[in-house]
Amino acid sequence: MNTPKYISFSCPVPLHDYPHVLLAHGGGGRLMNQLIESIFIPAFHNAALDQRHDASVLEVGASRIAFTTDSYVVHPPVFPGGDIGSLAVHGTINDLAMAGARPLFLSAGFILEEGLPMDDLWRFVQSMQRAAAEAGVAIVTGDTKVVDRGKGDGIFINTAGIGIVEHDAVIVPQSVRPGDTLIVSGDLGRHGMAIMAVREGLEFETTIRSDSAPVADLVLRMLSERIEIHCLRDLTRGGLASALNEIAAGSQRTILIEEKQIPVGEEVAAACEILGFDPLYVACEGRFIAFVPSSQAERTLDIMKSHPLGQGAAIIGIVSDESSPRVIMKSRIGARRIVDMLSGEQLPRIC
Amino acid sequence: MNTPKYISFSCPVPLHDYPHVLLAHGGGGRLMNQLIESIFIPAFHNAALDQRHDASVLEVGASRIAFTTDSYVVHPPVFPGGDIGSLAVHGTINDLAMAGARPLFLSAGFILEEGLPMDDLWRFVQSMQRAAAEAGVAIVTGDTKVVDRGKGDGIFINTAGIGIVEHDAVIVPQSVRPGDTLIVSGDLGRHGMAIMAVREGLEFETTIRSDSAPVADLVLRMLSERIEIHCLRDLTRGGLASALNEIAAGSQRTILIEEKQIPVGEEVAAACEILGFDPLYVACEGRFIAFVPSSQAERTLDIMKSHPLGQGAAIIGIVSDESSPRVIMKSRIGARRIVDMLSGEQLPRIC
Fold first, then answer.
1. DSSP B11-38
2. Where in chain A does DSSP place strands (E)?
3. Closest approach of chain A CAs to the CA of B49, in angstroms?
4. Which of A13, A141, B207, B221 has the fewest CB atoms in 10 Å of its CB?
5. CA atoms within 13 A on the CB side of B126
6. Chain B contact for A270 (CB, 8 A cutoff)
7. A42 at B interface, C-beta within 8 A
8. Which residue of B has its CA nearest to A32?
9. What values do phi and psi take at B326, rounded to 5?
10. Which residue among A1, A48, A139 sits closest to B140, beta carbon to beta carbon?
11. Rounded CA separation A142/A79 (Å)
């Protein structure tokens, strides 16, 4: 019998520069963006995917639902403030929340490596369930695959999520308007630095804990208070800088931010300093950026600060009326610089 | 800083016999069943999951939707009749079809190993898109993670799927009734043996091609012809034997099948003989079993045979009025034997 041959498809440019997948293709920066724009978007081309948003909003029967997926490969799988189980629930809930949806149901797909201690699996499953129950979502369908030793890494978890959209707002980058105010829901970089501190064995007076948390309740509160939300984005892989660059590209607007307004905790700043990271690019798992009309900015800030997951919220910038898609930061000493998308791999397997 | 410790949860019995995950825990047999019943069902306990069906049927707003997920880790990723991309689309569409749903949307979550040739990724993505387009579904949301070399195996794909349920039938094991007729939609074992023939380098006069195909259109045709379908199950991991054992357990009924009625192709039978497999346990990816009232059996068979994906359909058994949950087969020579669930691992990484 003939072993089937790979049909020769040629890959679209500019991928000829990268004949093989690199860690950076999953890192949330420029290469990942290139992969998405050169392979996934052209292949799967459809209106929902073209929203280029964390979750797709779809008409199903008489309902508007949000649908999203994420795989979790975080290493190590246990870290201060969470584990791969809670992260897999929070991350997917947050993607639904970024479409302004009320999260309802999750799926859970496990890829286990032969030899994973059964107690670890039990622990992660319990952690998922606790996180789901706390956020009021149900894990309703699942799948388990096992791969041979050396072909996986303990446990990978995929969760997909379904939420219901109960409002008429179109929360996408294209809805961003000149003059919109940017509000970040809390301090940056805690998730990424919590993971890195464990990996590198760094010790601080206070352990850096991941900010991993489900922010849907906070977003729904903003919507119920009739905040006219133009866009939301959670600050995961690639951090604030990548999120803003994606929104600048989607809205074709220049975004201006002020360094001194951006909240970064002392330990996180110290860890970034030691390890050579820029907090603007470090992943969070319980923080998001909201774009709202400036007339509602102060009220939005009050609503966020009154919620346990928005206590550290801060106004950090505005959308200018320039139509060149880029992000500009005014530094502490008043200089202006372009905040670019991450070029290489900053933090592999952070989520 | 203290490295976080694993909290000591003790795992529920009977898993103390298996302190580590084995390949067989993903094989579709008894151990996988034990894992599901001992870990996932108790942890995630809810009504939807308690259906123990391929897809969960959920109320979302005014709609009834089906939701399912599967990860695909098939090795090798290319085989006669398909590849991991087409399989990841067909498999999830089929899980939706088994709830009688019309598949609408898929998500795609990729876990790539550093070093995967970009052309391979491109090829698999194209294959997914072709399979999705042929089945009339859209891939609307996705995610890509990259793991370090040696921590994955080229490519794993998770797809979750959403379908709409446009009828009132409750297609679950609990709906099975004594006297129901069992109809299988085609010959058994082609997917599993196509994979194994490649792995083992077996050559036959005719290459065994996987039966991987989306069966939703066939199921929707049966529903539109007003067949009163009581239960459906696709014959993936663990094959016909596992599917029937699960349905026997869910319905608390004895299922009787006749060996000579069960369609198995010549090459598949020969490959099973050589490799020591029983075709009853070998995975298909485009075959299912339907339980219908016996008064509708002949008409159902006609409808199935008139569809390209049901040409090899055959009536293979009935549901007895005994309430002991087991599967009994009458052999070619008239002997009766219990067809048990697969005990160990038969075919790892078949899907």
1. PPTTGGG-SB--GGGGTTSHHHHHHIII
2. 56-60, 63-72, 78-79, 82-83, 102-113, 138-147, 155-164, 181-184, 231-234, 254-258, 288-292, 314-319, 326-330, 336-338
3. 5
4. A13
5. 14
6. no
7. no
8. B144
9. -160, 170
10. A48
11. 25
How does pLDDT run across B34-75, given as a tens digit for each residue? 888 888 998 998 888 877 778 999 999 888 999 999 999 999
Whether chain A has a CB inside 8 Å of the CB on B205: the answer is: no
Q: Which chain A residues are within 8 Å of B4, Cβ to Cβ?
A: 78-80, 198
Three-state secondary-structure class, residue B317? strand
In degrees rounded to 5, what are phi and psi of residue A121?
Answer: -60, -45
Region class of B160: left (phi > 0), else alpha (psi between -120 and 50), else beta = beta
- Per-residue pLDDT reduced to its tens digit, A152-207: 999 999 999 999 999 999 999 999 999 999 999 999 999 999 999 999 888 877 89
| Interface contact B175, partner A, CB < 8 A | no
The first and second tokens of residue A263, run together, are: 């909240």
Whether the model pTM is above 0.90: yes
Listed by number, the residues of chain B in 236-265 with a beta carbon closer than 8 Å to a beta carbon of chain A are: none
Q: Taking a contact as any Cβ pair under 8 Å apart, which residues of chain A between 43 and 62 contact chain B?
A: 43-44, 46, 48-49, 55-56, 58, 60-62
Strands A63-72 and A56-60: antiparallel
- List the structure tokens of A343: 């070029």
